Amino acid sequence: MPALDTLHRGFRSEYLSYAELTAQLEAWAAAYPQCTRLKSIGTTPQGRQIWMFSIGADLSAPKPAAWVDGNMHAAELAGSSVALAIAEDVLRVHLREPVPHVAGPVQEALRHIHMHVVPRMSPDGAEAVLTTGAYVRSVPREARANREAPRWLAHDMDGDGLALVMRQEDPTGEFVASKVHPNLLVPRRIDDVGPFYRLYPEGTIENFDGHHIPDPYFLSDNEPDLNRNFPYHWAPEPAQAGAGRYPLSEPESRAVVEAATALPNLFTWLNLHTFGGVLIRPLGAAPDTKLAPFDRALFQQLEEWATELTGYPTVSGFHQFLYEPEKPLHGDLSDFAYHQRGAFAWVCELWDIFEQAGLPKRERFVDRYTQLDREHLEQLAAWDKQHNHSNIVLPWRAFEHPQLGKVEVGGVDPRFGIWNPPRDRLAEICRSQSALYLRVASLCPRVELAEPTVELLAPGVHRVTLDVVNLGYLATYGLESSKPLSWNEPLHLEAGGRGLKVEGNDVRKNLGHLEGWGRGRWSGSHALFFPRSRGNSTRTRVSLVVRGSGELRVVVRSCRTGEVERTVRL
Q1: Rounded to whole angstroms, what are the CA distances from 549 to 323, 410, 523?
Q2: Is residue 91 part of a domain?
Q3: Strands 314-316 and 203-206: what pairing?
Q4: pTM of the model
């Protein structure tokens, strides 16, 4: 069996193409069939597979499980690298290779769960960004019926293989060249002297009438935003830009929902994006006062660990990450994972470019993306020059545009430095994010059957007593908010065996749910005035009267926790 390092394809220091990513997953699956499974959960319109890579002991038997996905948005390539790093670290745990950034008790807990990794949800979109540089929100396609209005189509104009941006001199332009960084366009001020510029996508205008230039729109030629296409709290256009024609209209989002719905044992879910250097937690459409108390305590624990292990803050989706205050986003994946699948779910926006470039903090985190003055953009350009080999701010090249006339092409390539970290920063981000998520994944419930006691009541009649115990942090129902979900079934016990008769109704017993030992952070359970436990709700005792001799098989199962069993010789 090969050492894991010999199979590594470079994703901790490079952004992999679809072929390279596929080769990495296939290499792992071929080398370690005893603890891995590679499955396509869907096919894109361009014929690429949406891979789900699963890791764990006995993958054919349900166990508590964790999910991680990345690269839902085409340009957010770092999500694929981090998802692969998490998969590789979990593989190390199962192969018992050293994982220095994962504590021993965490590793032990991880051996009792399954990990499902979808490293690239939008392989068509990622390939377009890697090969062309064009802006694609999620997928490089659109099927809208209204095609008569003029719109921008992004593509390479000057033959350099990339579709970046174009600038054109215009006395009414709202941009001007920076005096400090001449290739950088900055917002025009009242006392500036030209030339002034307008800034457009590199490409052409469909249905151009020779005069009217349409506003560039981030979904001009790539209509759906996958993170607005999920079924929870979905809303159509125009209430929600990028919604798609109906919930799950896109094969990528549909594949994820179908795969996840077949896994009721999912307890935690990490949705990887870029950029910002922040964790975004529920609720997305309501204030924190609406969070269930235990959920709130658990997210407070996540915040502490995220600060410790990654340096990223944790913010509320409703309070800190609405583009328009009190106007919630619709149809996003983390809402689906939290509300409909009952998972401890959040979004991570990888890559803290704001901190790296020394840009100012804002009262609402989301405002860091837009509340940027000229000096802030020049700070970013200075960082790019000093720490990023000037990969973002590029020279302009003159070009005769077939529709607009004289323009200049180039200027900005945000792929490696803004949208994603520079390659030499990728390894540390992979390490720290994996350390955080694996710690969280280790919180999953862990049901075990304690050693039974057997008492002889009469010849051929025994009483078998055993405790069913949840050794995990989370309860067998997971989050407090998820307990009412219709499929969130309690534990059931079944007992029987050839030549044996279990008396009464004990052949099948409803055991209810078992609490976990975890309390989150600041839940009040450790208050100075009354620190107390909650009794022994983490366990329940079962007593069975059995007639006959042979092997008694005792099984405890639920769709959430999987199945555990013990055999007792009578």
Answers
A1: 68, 82, 49
A2: yes
A3: unpaired
A4: 0.95
**CATH code of the domain in which 230 resides:** 3.40.630.10
Q: Are 94 and 57 in contact (CB under 8 A)?
A: yes
Task: Specify the 3-state DSSP secondary structure of 416.
Answer: strand
User: Is 254 in the same domain as 124?
Assistant: yes
Amino acid, res. 461: V
Quote the CA–CA distance of 65 and 48 in Å, as a whole number: 26
What are residue 201's DSSP bridge partners?
Answer: 165
Q: d(Cα 256, Cα 116) in Å, to the nearest integer?
A: 11
Return d(Cα 566, Cα 465) in angstroms, integer: 12
Residues 197 and 273 in one domain: no
Answer yes or no: are the C-beta atoms of 543 and 493 closer than 8 Å.
no
Residue 111's nearest CA partner among 470, 444, 506, 530 is: 444
Give the span between the Cα atoms of 570 and 423, in whole angstroms.
62
Question: How many domains does the structure of the chain reveal?
Answer: 3
Work out the angle at residue 191's Cα, subtended by the Cα atoms of residues 190 and 193, and round it to the nearest 5 degrees.
110
pLDDT band at 505 (very low <50, low <70, confident <90, very high): low
Cis-peptide into 321, omega within 30 deg: no
pLDDT tens track for 157-213: 999 999 999 999 999 999 999 999 999 999 999 999 989 999 999 999 999 999 999
